[in-house]
Structure formats: structure tokens, C-alpha cells
Amino acid sequence: MAWxxxxxxxVAGALAAVWYLFEHSRDRASSFEAPAVGTTVAAAAAxxxxxxxxxxxxxxxRIGGAGETVExxxxxxxxxxxxxxxxxxxxxxxxWALWFNSWVIHLGGDPDLRGEVSLPRQxxxxxxxxxxxxxxxxxxxxxxxxxxxxxxxxxxRHGVWERIDTPLACEPVQLLEFxxxxxxxxxxxxxxxxxxxHEQDGRGSWLPVGGGMPGLGLLAVxxxxxxxxxxxxxLLLLTGAGDEAWQRVPRPGGDAVALxxxxxxxxxxxxxxIEVVDYxxxxxxxxxxxxxxxxxxxxRSGIWAAAWRDxxxxxxxxxxxxxxxxxxxxxxxxxxxxxxxxxxLWMAGTPSAAIDAAAAAEAVxxxxxxxxxxxxxxxxxxxxxxxxxxxxxxxxxVSREAGIERRMVxxxxxxxxxxPILAHATDPLFVRRPADGxxxxxxxxxxxxxxxxxxxxxxxxxESHLARWTMSWFVPRSTGARSGFDRxxxxxxxxxxxxxxxxxxxxxxxxSVWVGTREDGVLRYRNGAWERHAExxxxxxxxxxxxxxxxxxxxxxxxxxxxASNPLPERGSIAPLHVWEGDRWRPLTPSWASSAVQARALVxxxxxxxxxxxxxxxxxxxxxxxxxxxxxxxxxxxxxxVDEAGMLWIAESLWSSRRGLRIIDGGRVGHLDSRDxxxxxxxxxxxxxxxxxxxxxxxxxxxxVYDRQLLxxxxxxxxxxxxxxxxxx
Length: 729
What we know:
7 helices, disordered N terminus, 729 residues, Methylamine Dehydrogenase, Chain H, mainly beta, disordered C terminus
């Protein structure tokens, strides 16, 4: 099992999310060849990438979709649209939801009427933008402005994509419409500047709006049409023309991450909280501590703030209230917030959703909070182990160790305390061999990014890279005793791989160390030396590693992308699968699967291996010849685990439109999330102790310990099945 199973699946999920961003397989709006009833499309523009509606605004050439209504509590009716990270509204009231390089466009702001548009991948004006992704965008009448993460500025107009030059030395960071024109916010050396687009006789230029402004941050237009900007500890108000166009007003708070204003109030969210001030910079309300704010909105009912992984927050002038997924919010990832002219409040996420702002303000005060399932919840895995294990070092799949450098806790073989996701990049990581409790020390934290040293790796860079490959064994002096460890340092492999050891590390019982790298193949350490496995050793057809896992027979399974030297067949490509049988690699390329299956991870089962894909879940038996489909659509899991009874537990990742856990037992499927009282909707890792209790590590780092049968009783089981059937197991 690659390191750690939950964390690797998160990485696999991230790679899968990138795949989705290009293929748009999740939350795709239904499409039809003809526009929906009530939508007028100008035939003259139909030959371009977009069509135009009667108001001259861009719309998809295919329009369809059927939204979903989510009702929780009195007057709380959310209408679900397409997924997105960034929301914008055009002059015709169409709401655009951006997801990397594609948009779901909701016509007239109606979640039920939508279409999808993606950037053309091969267009010469868009090459750099497509590879890096869209950072900001501005839909206008007859045109679309795009700002790429690669600092490229592109405009679509009259069916043509064109690159737009930016001002000299400008690092573009934001697009905005103001007073009928386009504004571009630039970072310059030591300051920032705002430029307005000027078009005349078919030629365009950028004219500065005032002079340079140190610390210039976000721009926003108030509900009354006033242009404001943020800077650390200040508001910038547009008051005139020339170099003195901007008035600096002192205010509390740091760099803004979100900004909104009406006639009297300015709302500024920074990295740790929210300030509400008037136009003189004087606080109107006490500062609210809230991390992860991605968007704010303001109207006469109050102030709204969307926070990443913390839902929607509302301030009515006297107190803040929180609305999350457990209490009926369609998604609590809180990626962006938009308030339209007709007072529809939109929140970006998976999915994005809209609600009448007045109804939302009323409903947020009357939310129904589900009763939590009985559990013991701890701030981290170390605290959980101290309380639950008492004097024991090992209980089932949970173990702890305090004799090396620091206190540690492991789920199976993977470190969960200190939490590697929250640890520093330079902190070492440990992997545990369950057979005897031996520990492998990796001198850096691959969870914070796998390090590389390029082809010209030399000098200090090579020394640092060499140190990352200098791993150490800590072997118990006597099995089961608390008498300490013997340390054995492993020499780095030669030639030195370009990539440092990363997420895929396996420690079989024979004392060897397997390390999988994405670009340097699979390496094995045994008898004091490293060996590299590639074409010459039978690992043929394998390209970049996807995952690696060992099974109960001591064999090693490798799942990889097709090698660059192995041309893809016209019908598609299946990820090569190989198994090491002690002295040779045996190819098990699963030709039984559809070429549309995107393999993502391997998970050891009770008798074979589970293959996790972008949809189906397969069980591959020990001989590799009898695959079984055991799940039609498992989404994008963060963790997949098998308990002692053979039940399959699937935890949904941050990129999944689902939440919580699914428990699969043959034809029975049980669902659990925060609406059922689960501690969190994002579970990163699972383990079972010697008493059969379920340990869950949440995305926030907390650990909850549950009675297994209690979870079965609270789960929502598929039709025709009951909790009693699961409890019997």
C-alpha cells in the first residue's frame, strides 16, 4: 500500500481532478442540440465558439441542464447548478462558474438552465493559458476577457481569440468592469497600478488610473458603483483623476483576500478574519476571526462570507451565524460568493448553488443541526492513542512509538501523528513495518511536495537531494520488547534518481524497501544495495508511476501510465499493471476494462488487490485473471479500506461532489455524512483497532473513534437493505 493510502489517494484525487478539469466528467450539464425554450440565440454568431443572446451576451451553443433542489429547514431552498471555483455575472444576468479551463453558464442566473463551454486546447493564442489555467475572467457584451495563471491576457470577440498585450512590466492579477470599461490590476516592482482599456479605430491601449500604489491588492465596485481598492492597513478610494486619483484611508487588518461594499459599509476579509468599516476606515462591528474566506457579499439583509471547508457565514448587524453542509448547505467548500442584481446569492463549489438572499437570511436563523453520532473525538491521532491505547503499543491496525525522535502514531504502516499533511516540508516522515514494528525514516516530508533535482543536478542542490535519499532503518532489538532500536543508514542509490522518494513506499516482511517514483521507475533496496526495476527486469511498457502496493502474499503490484515509447492505440489506453512474484515481473494489463477507465490507485484487499478508477471499482484476484466489478461509481475517494469482515469503506475526497463515507458489503451500500451526525464530511484515513472500533482521521486533523456497529445503525442503507444486516457482520 503506497504512502499513506489516504494521502496517496488525495494526490491521486488531485491528479484525477486535473484530468477532470480537462475532460469535464463531473457535474457536466445535460446538453441538447437546440437551445432551451425561452432562450434567443443570434444565428449570425453561431459559427463562433459561443452564440449570442438577444442582449448581445455570450451563451453556450448547447443549452440544457436540470438543476437539483436541496431543502433543509424552513425557507431554505437552494437550487443547484454546475461546479465552479470562481463566479461572475455578465450584463445580461447570466452567471458564469469557472472550473480551471471551462465554464458552466447559467442563463439568466437560473441554475436549471445551463450549458458548458471549454477552452479550445490547440488554439495558438491559448496554449500557455490552457496549460496553466484561467486565473480571472470578465464576461461582457459580445466578448470574454481571460487572465491566465501564466500572466497571459486573452480576449474572445467576433468569434476570434486574440492575445492582448499588457502594460510594460505589469504582472496582471485581476480583471474588473467599471463605468462601462475594462480595468486591469497590475503588480509592479514594489507597488501596484490600475489601468483602463481604451479602444479607438480598432486599436487598443492601456491608460493608468492614478499613479502607482504601494501594496495595492484587490479592487471591487460597491453596490452604488463606487470603485474601491485594498492595501495592507488601508482602503484606497477613487476620488478623481491624475496621480492623486486615489485617496488612502487607514483601516485595521492585513492584505485582503475578499472585498465588498455598499453605500456605507466596506467588508474586508484577510487571511484570518473579517473587518467591517465605514469609508473613513472606522470599524462598524467587532472583528470576526474566520480563516479561509474566499468571497464576501453585502446587501440590505446583512453580510455574507464563504469560507473554504467552513461553509457560509452571515452577519445580521449584531452576530454571525454559520450554515454548513450538515445543516443543509449543498456544499461547504465555500470557493466564491456572488450576489446578483435580483438578490440571488450564489456560492461556488461542487456543486455551485443559488438561493434568494432574503430567504437565506431568514433561514440561517432557523437551521436544524443533526445530532452527532456518539464518538470520542480528539485533536489529533497522538491524543487519541494516549487515551484509547492506554499502556499498549499496538491495537489492531493502530500503533504508537515514542522511542525515536518524537511521539508517533501509525494507521497500519502510515504515519498519522505528527500529521504529515500539516507538518513542515523539512520534517522527517516514518513508515512502519507491521510485522515487527521496524521504522523507516525518510528525511523530508513528501506530503508537502515531492522534491526534484534536474538533469544538471550539482553542488548544493545535489547535496540536498542526496540527503533526501539517505534513509534510515530503525529495527527493534527484540520483537515485542521496549528495549529500543538499532539504526541502519541506507546509502543513496547510484546513479541518483532525479526525483526524491515520495508517496509510494512499501516495506514487505522480507526486510526490503520498495520506492516508487513517478519519473525514475521503481527502486528496491535489499542486502545493502539498490536495484532499479525497468524494461530490462521485465517492467516493460510502464511509464510514470500511478501507485504501488504490496499484497498479503508478499508480492508487489505496480500501476503506471503507458510509457512514452509505447504509443497509445487508437481506441485509448489502459494503465499497465505489473506484479512482482519474487524473481520476475508479470504483466497483468487489464484489457478487460474499458479504455475510458482512468486507473488511480491500488488498495490491498483480503485476497487480492482493488483497482480504484475514475468510476468503477474492481477486485483483482490473486492470479490477476478474474476481475470483479464491485462498485459502479465510487467518485473520487480520499481513502479506500477493507475491514476484517471484508466490508469496503470509501471516504470521499475534497474533489468529490459526494460527502462522508460509503460502506459496501456485497449488494448493500450504506451512506454516512455530517447530516447523519458523522464528525466530518472529509475523512482522510481509516483504521480499526483490536476492539473493532473505527478510527477516522479527518481532513482537519481531528481523530474520531467510533463503535463499528453504531455506524451501521446510523447509516442510510440502499433500498431493500437494513442496518441489521450489516450489524450481523
